[in-house]
């Protein structure tokens, strides 16, 4: 079995969600003994796409009778891999371009039951299967000196208390939540790493930074080793997006045993289970109170069951499922 797994952007986005998803899928193929290729002309048995931008390539694959697989909603913070309309942040809506690709596919993979339901309700007619988002736990094994990269990179002293978050800068709700939480916790330092869907990165970061508390730091994307080091150094990770199925960052936080704290329940993200894998709060004040309590002896934690969740979503677990799904297309 030879699978063409394609994801290419015009910019260097090797550290972000779409590229990470491609690496995870290739890793699953290697674990399962499935050959992946980068060339559509190398006669693949299956073509696997991760972005609506590959619609033209999918048309060509269909012309050559190559079964098409599409992974949707695994990388919604990445502007090159998003299937949802960024202009409708409060109501998840599949774009018309994404809908064409999804309905051209022989198999659509989604991260959970909620996203499968969303597809059906919005008109996807293709076969839809759930393939859990996966994390490569080996990325976090034996980091050694790499754990110090983030403190050195940002000149962070040992006594600093760090809270981390990530997402998309155009999600104003998340940005405002970060500002409000940071204002309530002046004794903590907050770092936000994000992508940009439409605006100029330097302009947007400069604009936000002028109007934020001094303990909040807006940063553009960093290399993977820096981000992993940041997760290890952080005392907590804030999951602030309540309308997208963000799995990559959450699983990374689980894998590094960083405490995850969420603002509002997210019906599209089944990884965030209140009082089991994370703590979910309904207000800024409640989150601020919990973050301050992290440094007391009374602080509660969910890092052990969260790490168990990461283990259940490991590369090895996903590999078997992915191979079965690929095989089902060839055995028709």
Order of strands in the sheet with the most strands?
Answer: 2-1-3-4-5-6
Count, helices: 12
Largest pleated sheet: 6 strands, parallel
- The value of Rg in angstroms is 20 Å
Overall 3D shape: globular
Sheet/helix structural class: alpha/beta
The helical percent reads: 25-40%
Q: What is the averaged pLDDT score?
A: 91
Strand content: 15-25%
Which residues form runs of ≥5 with pLDDT under 50?
none
Terminal CA distance: 15 Å
Report the strand count: 12
Spell the H/E element sequence.
EHEEHEHEHEHEHEHEHEHEEHHH
In words, what does this structure look like?
This protein is of the alpha/beta class and 332 residues long. It is 38% helix and 16% strand. It has helices at residues 17-32, 55-63, 96-104, 113-121, 149-153, 172-184, 201-210, 224-233, 248-255, 284-293, 303-312, 315-330, and strands at 2-6, 35-37, 46-49, 68-71, 107-110, 128-130, 162-168, 189-195, 216-219, 236-239, 259-263, 279-281. A 6-stranded parallel sheet has the order 2-1-3-4-5-6, sandwiched between helices. α2 (55-63) runs parallel beside α3 (96-104). It is globular and about 60 Å long. It starts with a strand and ends with a helix.
Give a quick summary of the entry.
The protein is an alpha/beta fold and about 325 residues long.
How are the elements arranged and paired?
Elements: E1 2-6, H1 17-32, E2 35-37, E3 46-49, H2 55-63, E4 68-71, H3 96-104, E5 107-110, H4 113-121, E6 128-130, H5 149-153, E7 162-168, H6 172-184, E8 189-195, H7 201-210, E9 216-219, H8 224-233, E10 236-239, H9 248-255, E11 259-263, E12 279-281, H10 284-293, H11 303-312, H12 315-330
Parallel strand pairs: 1-2, 1-3, 3-4, 4-5, 5-6, 7-8, 7-10, 8-9, 10-11, 11-12
């Amino acid at each position: 079995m030879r699978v063409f797994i394609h994801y290419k952007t015009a910019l260097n986005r090797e550290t972000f969600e779409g590229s990470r998803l491609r690496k995870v899928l290739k890793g699953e193929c290697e674990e399962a003994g499935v050959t992946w290729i980068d060339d559509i002309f190398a006669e693949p048995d299956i073509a696997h796409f991760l972005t609506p931008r590959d619609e033209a390539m999918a048309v060509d694959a269909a012309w050559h009778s190559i079964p098409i697989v599409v992974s949707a909603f695994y990388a919604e913070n990445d502007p090159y891999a998003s299937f949802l309309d960024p202009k409708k942040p409060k109501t998840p809506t599949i774009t018309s371009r994404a809908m064409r690709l999804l309905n051209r596919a022989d198999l659509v993979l989604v991260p959970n039951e909620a996203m499968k339901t969303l597809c059906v309700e919005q008109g996807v007619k293709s076969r839809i299967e759930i393939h859990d988002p996966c994390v490569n736990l080996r990325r976090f094994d034996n980091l050694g000196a790499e754990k110090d990269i983030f403190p050195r990179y940002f000149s962070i002293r040992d006594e600093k208390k760090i809270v981390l978050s990530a997402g998309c800068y155009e999600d104003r709700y998340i940005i405002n939540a970060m500002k409000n939480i940071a204002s309530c916790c002046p004794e903590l330092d907050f770092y936000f790493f994000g992508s940009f869907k439409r605006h100029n990165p330097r302009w947007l970061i400069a604009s936000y930074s002028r109007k934020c508390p001094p303990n909040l730091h807006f940063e553009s994307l960093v290399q993977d080793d820096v981000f992993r080091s940041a997760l290890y150094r952080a005392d907590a990770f804030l999951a602030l997006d309540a309308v997208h199925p963000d799995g990559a960052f959450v699983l990374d936080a689980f894998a590094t045993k960083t405490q995850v704290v969420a603002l509002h329940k997210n019906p599209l993200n089944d990884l965030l289970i209140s009082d089991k894998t994370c703590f979910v709060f309904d207000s800024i004040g409640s989150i601020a109170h919990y973050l301050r309590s992290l440094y007391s002896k009374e602080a509660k934690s969910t890092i052990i069951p969260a790490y168990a969740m990461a283990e259940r979503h490991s590369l090895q677990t996903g590999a078997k499922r992915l191979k079965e799904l690929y095989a089902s297309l060839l055995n028709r």
